[in-house]
Design brief:
mainly alpha
Length: 475
């Protein structure tokens, strides 16, 4: 029987009392009508203060801190678990719903092609940016030791099993793994590529619906009603879960700040800065894509800020999906079918941050240690190709970047230990990466809607057309 000392229990209880008071404060803000986005940022600030306070008062890794953080994780990890629960239902109803809601069938093929072209094109550019960031700043070949994070050895050990799942796959085998051989198993998320498999299955169901609509309108109408009902139910669940976002963000950020090795963060500061510089450059690329569509980047950023800020603090593209779709349709003038396609595909394909910049940087950093010239055209071309193909099926929840990196490093025959060595700063970078991922899907939606001729420029150019109704204000 484990006996816990009073010296451990009392500080832990005091910490939990402060945590409960902060949760009550966030609840009070909601009751007073404070908007969702300010509450999330308030939770971010309170979480940082609580986490730093826990580490200063109790000590990183102390028994009292571990006990307190274990209970705080019930809120934070519980929120993440609910987010993960929603991934597969969201993907299915959003993609199938895009087929059942569209009134212009001939545009579906064009919309899909353009969305995929933007997602894959920008993730290829992101890979080049990640490569350049590491190659031209002296990061290539840099050695990160265990001092760069005391949890590195544990993280690297935990990655071995995950890495083994993808290290032995050839590129054709990896592509084959995208095909859903058992859709029920993929809905349960039993494979690393389950998300893309569900995307493919949902698209097949949508195409089948279109063919059924041409032959039996009564059955098609019944199916459409069923999908609409499922869509409504899932979105209500989403609204309920997103309502917990401020509390989840508070707990998650507090845990990160209380358990982070700040010396490691300082040691890896250059990697963090280069990562955010690459993320900022990709936002410039997104602005150029918008300009090519004759759409104002300034209007876009102003209207997209609520969903991008939510993605930043929540670190979940899946969690941002409903706000993503609502922003595209209500603020950017994208038609509903295109918005559903772009948001859903962007959650599991071509993520610029998690599947583009991050794995490309890690591959470039580690390559010189095994005798590879990172400036070799063969290495650069191979890296971009592997990143683009591997960007399929990266789930839009925490851990997606780690999985993408394991695939890229494993496919290129590079050591995977670096993923564990950078674990101490990974959450800090993940916030920016997630915002970039969500932005990419919205830019793809604007582009596809423009190409299809369905972009409502009156809405896009209207400064008053913002996400200020519906689900967003209910949170």
């Amino acid at each position: 029987m484990c006996i816990v000392s009073v010296e451990t229990v009392l500080p832990a209880l005091a910490t939990l009392a402060v945590f409960a008071a902060l949760l009550a404060m966030l609840k009070l803000l909601k009751n007073r009508g404070v908007a969702f986005t300010p509450r999330v940022f308030a939770a971010l600030g309170l979480g940082i203060a609580l986490g730093v306070g826990v580490q200063l008062a109790l000590g990183r890794g102390s028994d009292a801190a571990v006990m307190a953080l274990d209970w705080i994780a019930v809120v934070g990890q519980g929120y993440i678990a609910l987010m993960k629960m929603l991934v597969m239902p969201l993907v299915f109803v959003a993609i199938v719903g895009a087929f059942t809601r569209t009134k212009v069938t001939e545009n579906l093929g064009r919309i899909s092609v353009v969305v995929l072209a933007v997602l894959l094109g920008t993730v290829a550019v992101a890979a080049l940016v990640g490569w350049a960031g590491a190659a031209f700043t002296g990061l290539a070949g840099a050695s990160f030791t265990a001092d760069a994070g005391s949890d590195a050895a544990t993280a690297a050990s935990a990655l071995q099993d995950s890495g083994q799942q993808v290290a032995d796959l050839t590129l054709p085998q990896e592509i084959l793994s995208f095909i859903p051989s058992n859709v029920f198993a993929d809905f349960a998320g039993t494979r690393p590529t389950s998300t893309i498999a569900v995307v493919i299955f949902s698209a097949i169901v949508g195409v089948a619906y279109l063919r059924l609509r041409d032959r039996d309108s009564a059955q098609a109408a019944f199916f459409q009603q069923l999908v609409d009902s499922l869509y409504g139910i899932v979105m209500r669940i989403v609204a309920m879960v997103l309502g917990l976002a401020p509390y989840g963000v508070l707990a998650l950020i507090a845990h990160v700040m209380a358990s982070s090795d700040y010396r490691a963060v300082l040691d890896l500061g250059k990697f963090v800065l280069v990562s955010y510089a690459a993320i900022a450059f990709m936002f410039v690329v997104h602005a150029l894509v918008l300009l090519a569509n004759r759409a104002s980047p300034r209007y876009y950023l102003r209207k997209a800020f609520p969903v991008l800020s939510f993605a930043f603090v929540a670190r979940s593209s899946a969690g941002a999906l409903p706000l993503n779709i609502e922003t595209q349709t209500n603020a950017l003038g994208v038609d509903e079918a295109t918005a559903n396609f772009a948001a859903s595909f962007g959650m599991s394909i071509g993520q610029n941050g998690c599947a583009g910049i991050y794995p490309a940087m890690l591959a470039t950093i580690i390559a010189p240690t095994v005798g590879i010239d990172v400036f070799s055209p063969a290495f650069v071309a191979g890296l971009v190709a592997v990143v683009a193909i591997s960007s399929f099926g990266v789930a839009g929840v925490g851990g997606g970047a780690t999985f993408a990196s394991l695939i890229v490093l494993g496919t290129m025959g590079l050591p995977i230990e670096i993923v564990g060595l950078l674990a101490s700063v990974e959450p800090l970078i993940d916030m920016g990466r997630t915002a970039l991922n969500v932005s990419d899907s919205m830019v793809a939606g604007v582009t596809a809607s423009n190409v299809a001729g369905t972009l409502d420029r009156t809405v896009f150019n209207d400064p008053e057309a913002r996400v200020n109704s519906g689900m967003h204000t209910e949170l």
